[in-house]
Specification:
The protein has 20 helices and ten strands. With 608 residues, it is an alpha/beta fold. It folds into two domains: 348 residues, ABC transporter type 1, transmembrane domain (ABC transporter transmembrane region fold, Up-down Bundle); 238 residues, Rossmann fold (3-Layer(aba) Sandwich), CATH 3.40.50. The two termini are 65 Å apart.
Length: 608
């Protein structure tokens, strides 16, 4: 129930729905009950007891059940005297027809209100999830599989919509119908209704037992869907490797094994879920059989004041309970799998944001002095990645970070824009701790070009202008020219309006990288971070991209992670990292003269 109420809270504010719904559903229930109440005068007319409720004087108006009842019987008496049984039959049937029409009109209006509520809830849920995805730190994505997150955003939300949210329509309406019907049953025969009501806890216990099993299986199903999507996403992304290693059968067998386990559980779940409907219907009919036997014996022995027509109406009211009871049982059963999906969604939404702004964080609009690492250490999952880093980067200088894989180069650059937060020590820009700067303001001071060119399935122009407002076509052209991208863009099918495909699939590696450089140039930040931007390119592409990088770095502070050491020979300072520590620092010539780790790295590359 706690999960259900939390999911329901996403439809706030409730005043947009509840008052309207309450009015419409109340009128729906009134006219639903009226249909069956009219069975009594209808049967009395057909079987000759048309004077049993004779009212000869129209009562004074009052908003009460007795007034409407007496007014109805006044007109019933009137038509009996004027038109006989046929007139009464027509009178009662017309009222029943009008009642059915009004019942369905108000039922439709109540569903419209709940549809608005349903759509609003699902829309807000998706927006909250995507906000969480876009604002989480990078450490969040180390623990969560991409396929699992996509499954939560897609299949889990769809599951919530098709089960939990759909069940709201049943849970809000059907119990009210059952309660109102029981009021009428008690009104007609307190003794008979009290006797039969003892059967409802029994059916409730049976249905709740099935529901608990469904929820456990629902958790497994949603987790399996996440694993299945994650594996499929990995297989599609790595299709080249799968083919070159002839691993098609291996990945297909693995997929079929996971899919088979999911299908087996899904079949069992659906079978149990479908069992709740016939079970609840059987229990309802069983109760009615008991009523007929017990109530009939009371009437036949003279121990009940119910007339034959009232007894038939009483049974009709009990039949009225079967459908909402069955719908409620179905809704509870269907909802269990949805609640399992809801728990997965809420787990993501409840994941704390490790990167937060301090209350009095400032806006910093420029960079004028230096970036300083003061005794910075960083630990990830109890593993030390950086230890006691002290480094000052003056404005306008180019600093190169070199070292073996795993030395901590990328982690150092990720700490500056606060993709992660330092474990110990602090990073300062112009003497201000970066934790005291608003995140948006901090990141507006820098741009990054990574080894993997991150592009989107959009036009060339939109990829260059990504995330920036009020960008003119001239600005985009100028940035593309600085990045040595303008010429190849003009050769594309639609120039700057060419759609480049998923992750820039229609472009070569060098072309993609030049677009990311153009994007960084257009942002025009004072600080540039280059994470092995040319390491995956061929020699010709590397030369073109390196020229573009050199153009971009002019008059900017640059932090360069270098795999090919030839690209950082002219750096103002080269920092050599080893197992998270700075072990050497200096210019290219100075480090060569030291004949240390850096010199060995240079010799290894020259030999290769």
């Amino acid at each position: 129930m706690k999960v259900f109420l939390r999911l329901l809270s996403f439809s706030k504010p409730y005043h947009h729905y509840i008052p309207e719904y309450a009015v419409f559903i109340l009128l729906y229930i009134i006219f639903s009950l009226l249909n069956f109440s009219l069975l009594i005068p209808l049967l009395d007319t057909l079987f000759g007891k048309d004077n049993s409720h004779a009212v000869t004087v129209l009562p004074a108006f009052s908003f009460s059940l007795n007034y409407f009842k007496d007014a109805f019987y006044y007109w019933l008496t009137f038509y009996i005297h004027r038109d006989g049984k046929l007139g009464v039959l027509i009178y009662v049937c017309m009222i029943i027809l009008l009642s059915v029409l009004l019942k369905n009109v108000f039922g439709f209006l109540s569903q419209k209100v709940l549809t608005r509520m349903r759509v609003s809830l699902v829309r807000k849920l998706r927006e909250k999830l995507f906000d969480q995805f876009s604002t989480q730190s990078l450490s969040f994505y180390h623990h969560e599989k991409k396929g699992n997150l996509l499954a939560i955003l897609s299949s889990d939300v769809v599951e919530i919509e098709s089960t939990v949210v759909t069940s709201i329509q049943v849970i809000f309406k059907e119990p009210l119908i059952i309660i109102a019907t029981f009021i009428m049953l008690f009104y007609y025969s307190f003794q008979l209704t009290l006797f039969t009501i003892i059967f409802f806890p029994i059916s409730g216990f049976i249905i709740s037992t099935i529901s608990r099993r469904l929820k456990r299986k629902g958790n497994y199903i949603q987790e399996s869907i996440g694993r299945l999507l994650s594996f499929a996403e990995e297989a599609i992304s790595g299709i080249r490797i799968i083919k070159i290693f002839n691993a098609e059968k291996f990945v297909t067998d693995r997929f079929r094994k996971e899919n088979g386990a999911l299908s087996k559980t899904l079949k069992s779940t659906l079978n149990q879920r479908e069992l709740s409907s016939p079970l609840s219907e059987f229990m309802g009919v069983f109760v009615i059989i008991v009523i007929i036997i017990y109530g009939g014996s009371l009437i036949l022995t003279g121990h009940s004041t119910l007339t034959a027509s009232a007894f038939i109406a009483y049974i009709a009211f009990y039949f009225q309970i079967i459908e909402p009871a069955k719908n409620t049982a179905n809704a509870i059963s269907y909802m269990q799998r949805g609640l399992a999906a809801g728990e997965r969604v809420l787990r993501i939404l409840d994941t704390p944001q490790p990167i937060t702004e301090r209350e009095n964080a400032i806006i910093k609009e420029d960079f004028s002095g230096q970036i300083e690492f003061r005794s910075v250490s960083f630990r990830y999952d109890q593993t030390n990645v950086l230890e006691a880093i002290d480094l000052k980067i003056q404005k306008g200088r180019m600093i190169a970070l070199v070292g073996q894989s795993g030395a901590g180069k990328s982690t150092m650059t990720d700490l500056i824009p606060r993709f992660y937060d330092v474990t110990d020590g602090g990073i300062y820009i112009d003497g201000t701790d970066i934790k005291d700067i608003k995140l948006k303001s901090l990141r507006s001071l820098m741009s990054m070009v990574s080894q993997e060119a991150i592009l989107f399935n959009d036009t060339v122009a939109n990829n260059i202008a990504f995330g920036m407002d009020h960008v003119t076509q001239e600005d985009i052209l100028r940035a593309a020219k600085i990045a040595n991208a303008h010429d190849f863009i003009l050769e594309l099918e639609n120039g700057y309006e060419t759609i480049i495909g998923d992750r820039g699939a229609r472009l070569s590696g060098g072309q993609k990288q030049r677009l990311t450089i153009a994007r960084a140039v257009l942002k025009n930040p004072p600080i540039l971070i280059l994470d092995e931007a040319t390491s995956s390119l061929d020699t010709e592409s590397e030369r073109i991209v390196q020229d573009a990088i050199n153009n971009m770095m002019q008059n900017r502070t640059s932090i360069v992670i270098a795999h090919r050491l030839s690209t950082v020979r002219h750096a103002d300072e080269i920092i050599v990292l080893h197992k998270g520590r700075i072990i050497e620092r200096g210019t290219h010539e100075g480090l060569i003269a030291m004949n240390g780790i850096y010199n060995k790295l240079v010799e290894m590359q020259e030999v290769n």
